[in-house]
Amino acid sequence: MKNSKILWLLGLVLVLSAFLAACGGGDDTDTGTENTDTEGTEDAEGNGGEPDSVQELNLIEGAEIPSMDSSIAEDAVAFNILNNVNEGLFRLNQENIAEPALAESEPEISEDGLTYTFKLRDANWSDGTPITANDFVYAWQRAIDPETGSPYGPYMMAGTIKNAKEVSEGDMEVSELGITAEDDKTLVVELERPTPYFMSLMAFGTFYPLNEEFVTEQGDDYASNSETILYNGPFTLTNWDGTGLTWTMEKNAEYWDAETVQLETVNVDVVKETSTAVNLYQSGEKDRVGLSGEFAMQYAEDPEVVKELEPTLFYLKFNQERNGEETPLANENIRKAIATGFNKQDLVDVVLANGSLPANYLVPTDFTFNEAGEDFRDINGDMLSFNAEEAKTYWEKGLEEIGETEVTLELLGGDSELAGKMDAYLKEQLETNLEGLTVNLKAVPFGVRLELDEAQDYDIQNSGWGPDFQDPMTFIDLFVTGASHNLMSYSNEEFDNLVEQAKGELAQDAEGRWEAMAQAEKILIEEDAAIAPIYQRGTMSLQKPYVNNIVKHPFGGDYSYKWAYISGKE
Amino acid sequence: MARYIGKRLIYMFITLALIATFTFFLMKILPGSPIASADKLSPEQRAVVEARYGLDQPLPVQYFDYMFGLLQGDLGISINQFKGANVTDVILSRMGPSAQIGFQGMLLGTVLGILFGMVAALRQNTWVDYGSTIVAIIGISIPSFVFASMLQYWLGLKLDLFPVALWKDGFMSSVLPSIALAMFPLATAARFIRTEMIEVLGSDYITLAKAKGASGSEIAFKHAFRNALIPLITVLGPMAVSILTGSLVVEQIFAIPGIGEQFVKSIMVNDFSIIMGTTIFFSVFLIVIILVVDILYGVIDPRIRLSGGKS
Q1: Least CB–CB distance from B49: residue in A26, A151, A447
Q2: Interchain contact, B48 vs A451, CB within 8 Å
Q3: Which residues contact B152 (CB under 8 A, 6 or more apart)?
Q4: Could you give the CA distance from residue A288 to residue A61 in angstroms, rounded to a whole number?
Q5: What are phi and psi of A553, to 5 degrees?
Q6: Of A19, A245, A283, which has the smallest distance from its Cβ to B255's Cβ?
C-alpha cells in the first residue's frame, strides 16, 4: 500500500515536470526558428519592390468597434476605420501634412481668418450618389445637436466653429452653426476665432460628411452594421455585423483617388490576447501584430520589429491645493526636486521597454512642424532633465522654505500592470534621491482616477494626454488657469497671457504664435515645474517584410492603408 | 408535479426581480462613467451625452424605467461597447459561440470524466486508477489559460492540426476551445464518480445483489452508477451554466466572439444596460438549470420526493 502511494506521487511529479519542461522549451525553440526564418526571407525581398498580384493585408485589432457612426465615435478603433473608409475635406498624407481630399484645393480664407470657403471636388458615395456641400452641413449639425448625444461633436467644435457651444447647449438652433452650403459644390465655414490648425481638424472623423437622405432613411439602424453605412474613402467596410470580432475593408471603386489605392482587401480580426496575436503572426495568418509587455522585451531585437513613436505624453501632475489647503507641492523647489529626481532613461529602457522615449518636454517630438518642416521640439530643447544632484539641492531648499524635514506625498496612478511597475519605480527613485520623502502609492481604475482628479483629491498624479488636433496648443492650453484639465491649482499670469496671445492676436502670425507657445511651455516646465514630464509613448509591432507603406498618423485615425501594398509575399 | 413547477416559477420570478434590483443599484455604485472620452469633455458636454441615454434622471426614475422596460422584454440599448445597439441583439449574437464550445466542452468532459471515474472505481488501486486520478488532478490544478495556451501553441501553431485561434473554420475552430473547457468538468466528474462508486460498491445491497447472482456489469451500471450520479448532477448543473455562458479566459485566448469576455468588459467600462441585460440573462439560465436539476433528482432516485408531488 505504501509503495503504491510513492509510485503515485512519483507519477504525478513526472507528468507535471513534463508540462513545465514543455513550456520552457517552447519559448526557446520559438525565438530560434523565428530568427532564421526572417533572415532568410529578408534577403530575398527587400522592401519597396514591385507590388504582388494578390493585394491582401491581414491585420489584428485590439478591441471591437463601438460605433461606426462618425458623430458618435469616440475611440481609437472607430476613428482608425473611419479614416480608411471615409474622408473629410482634408486628409493627412504620408508625411502627416493635411492635404485637400474632398476639398478640391486649399480653401479661400477671409482676411480676418474667420471665414473659409471650400470648393468640393467631384466625388461619389459608395452607392454612386454625388457628395455635396449639404452632406457636410448635415453631418456637422448632427454632431453638434444635443439630441444626437455626440461626445466629440461639442468637444471638437466648441470654441472653434461659430456658435457651436451655444447650439450644443441648446441655446441656439442647429441651423445657426457656422456652416452653410452656398451651392452643391461650395461650402462656407465660419469660425469663432482664427484657427491656424483648421485644415488638420478637417481630417478628423467628426467632421466627415454624411448623406442626409441615407442616414434619415436608415434611422436607428444607421451604422448598426456594415450594410447600413455609406462610404466615401479609399475602402468600404464589409462583413461587420455590429458586434462581431471580424470585419473586412475592400477597395472602394467609387473613391475619387481609387487609382492610388493598391490593396484589394484588408481582413481584420479582434484579438485581445497578445500571445494569441503573436501565434497568429507566426503561423502566417496575420501580417502585423502589436507587442506589449513581455512580448515587447522578447522581440525587441527581432528584425521584423517596427517601432513607432506616438504623440502621447505622460507626466506627473503636481496638485498645489488639496481640500482647500496648500500641499508641499505649492512650493516650487519641492516640485523641481521631484521633477528632476527620477531617472527617466532607466524607466524607459528597463521598466517600459516598449520603444518609449524619456520626455523632458510637454509637446511631443515628431508631432507638429512649422512651414519650413521644423519640429516644434527643436525650439525649446530639453527641460527638467534628470539630475540627482540638482534635485537634492532643490529638495533641501524647498524643505527649508516650507519648514519641514519630512514630507509624505500620495502618488495616484492607474491599476494596470504597467502603471503599477512604473509607479513603484518612481517611488523607489524619489525616496532614494530625496531624503525625507515618503511616497504612498494609490492605484485605482481609470474611472476612479478621473473622479479623484475632478475632486482635486490627490498629491501627485501620473497622467497622460493624446492630441486632438495637430498643434502644440492641444497640449499647452490644458494648463491655463481654470482649464478643466488643470485640476491642480496651477496659475501663472504670464503663461495664461502667452496662451491668450497665441489664440488671439498672434493667431495669424505663424512664427510669433509658435514663439509664444514655446515660451509658454518653457514657463510651465522649466520655470514653474507645474508638471513633471515622464515619457513619450512608443509602440512596437511585428510586421512581415512584404508589407509596405502603412502610414502612421499622430492624431485622428492611427493608420492609413491608402498607400499600403504587398510586395514579395509570393 | 405541475403545481410544484408552477410554484417554482413564481419563486423564480421573485428571485429574478430581486437579482435585477440588487444588480441595478450595485452597478450604479461602480465608480466611473460609461462615456469613453469622459476625461476630455467638460461637465456640460458630458451632461449632453448622459441625457441621450437617460442617465440624467434621478436614480429611482431610472430604476422604474428599467424595470418597466424589462417587464416588456426590453433590455435597453448599449451605451459604451456597441453604442446604440439593442442589448438583446448583442446577447443573442454573442451567445451562440459560447454555447457551442460550452456544450461541446461539457459533453466531452462529462462523458470522459464518467468513464475515467467508473474505470478507476472498478479497477481500484491499479495503474488505471492512478492514471485517471492524475488526469483529474491535472485538470483541476492547471489553470485554464495555461492549458488553453499550450493547446494553441502545440496543436495549433506547431503541429498545425487545428486553427490557432479565431472563429472562422466552423467546427474546427471550436475543437481546441472545447478541449480546454472540457478539462474542468472531466476532472470533477471523474473524482465524484470514483468516490461515490467505491462507496456504493462497498455497501450492503451490492453484496446482496452479488449474492443473488447479478452480473458484474448489471451491478456497475444499474446500481452503482445510478447512485453515484446524484452528487455529480448537483455540481454539474451550475457548472454547466458557468461554462455555457462563456469563459472569459478561453474566449479571449482563442479570440472567440463569445459572451463571457464581453460581459467582463461591460463591467470595466460601465456599460449599464449590457451589465443588466447579461446578468438577467445568466440568472434566468441558472434558475432554470437549478429547476431542471431538482426535477432530475426525482427521475434518477425515486426516494427523493418533490414537495406536493402527488400527481
Answers
A1: A151
A2: no
A3: A275, A276, A279, B164, B165, B176, B253, B254
A4: 10
A5: -110, 150
A6: A245
Identify the residue whose cell numbers are 448622459: B50
DSSP reduced 3-state for A311: strand
Per-residue confidence of chain B (311 residues) as pLDDT tens digits? 788 888 888 998 999 999 999 999 998 888 777 887 777 787 888 888 888 888 888 999 999 999 999 999 888 888 888 888 889 998 988 888 988 999 999 999 999 998 888 888 888 888 888 988 888 888 888 888 888 999 999 999 999 999 998 998 889 999 999 999 998 889 888 888 888 888 888 888 888 888 888 777 777 777 778 778 888 888 888 788 878 776 888 999 999 998 888 888 888 888 899 999 999 988 888 888 888 888 888 777 777 766 544 44
Neighbours of B10 (CB within 10 A): 9
The label of the residue with cell 497622460 reads A464
Alpha carbon A295 to its chain's center: 21
Are the beta carbons of A447 and B94 separated by less than 8 Å? no
- All residues at 6 or more sequence positions from A30 whose CB lies less than 8 Å from its CB, including other chains: A282
Nearest CB among A11, A66, A152 relative to B134 is that of A11
**Which SS3 state, helix, strand or coil, does residue A316 take?**
strand
Q: Which residues of B touch A280 (CB under 8 A)?
A: 164-166
Q: What residue has cell string 448632427?
A: A142
Asked if A149's CB is within 8 angstroms of B52's CB, the reply is yes
Residues A367, A95: contact at Cβ < 8 Å? no
- Any long-range contacts for B216-220 (C-beta under 8 Å, 24+ apart)? B220/B118, B220/B122
Work out whether strand A407-413 and strand A460-465 pair parallel, antiparallel, or are unpaired.
Answer: parallel
DSSP for B39-104, written as a single string: TTS-HHHHHHHHHHTTTTS-HHHHHHHHHHHHHTT---B-SSTTTT-BHHHHHHHHHHHHHHHHHH
Suggest the residue from B45, B75, B160 to mutate for an interface test with chain A (most A CBs closer than 10 A): B45
Q: Judge whether A288 and A270 are in contact, CB under 8 Å.
A: no
Of A244, A447, A450, the CB nearest to B257: A244
Are A93 and A99 spatial neighbours (Cβ–Cβ below 8 Å)?
Answer: yes
CB–CB contact A224 B261 (8 Å):
no
Say if pTM beats, i.e. exceeds, 0.90.
Answer: no
Q: Which of A1, A268, A280 to mutate to test the interface with B (most CBs of B within 10 A)?
A: A280
Strand partners for A237: A249
Cα angle A47, A50, A52 (rounded to 5 degrees) comes to 100
Residue A285 with chain B: CB contacts under 8 Å: 164, 166
C-alpha A457/C-alpha A459 separation (Å) is: 7
Going from the C-alpha of B229 to that of each of A499, B189, B223, the distances in angstroms are 76, 9, 11
Contacts of A12 in chain B (CB under 8 A): 134, 137
Cβ within 8 Å, pair B164-A66: no
Stated as kind and residue range, the H or E segment containing A61 is strand A56-61
CA angle A528-A530-A531, nearest 5°? 130
Query: Least CA distance to B85: which residue of chain A?
Result: A224
φ/ψ bin of B282: left (φ > 0), alpha (ψ from -120 to 50), beta (otherwise) = alpha
Strand A288-291 to strand A531-543: parallel, antiparallel, or no bridges (unpaired)? antiparallel
Grid look-up 466542452 returns B105
As a residue count, chain A comes to 570
- The answer to ipTM > 0.95 is no
Check: CB of residue B189 under 8 Å from CB of residue B117: yes
Size of interface A-B (CB pairs under 8 A): 160
Contact residues on chain B for A149, CB-CB shorter than 8 A? 48-49, 51-53
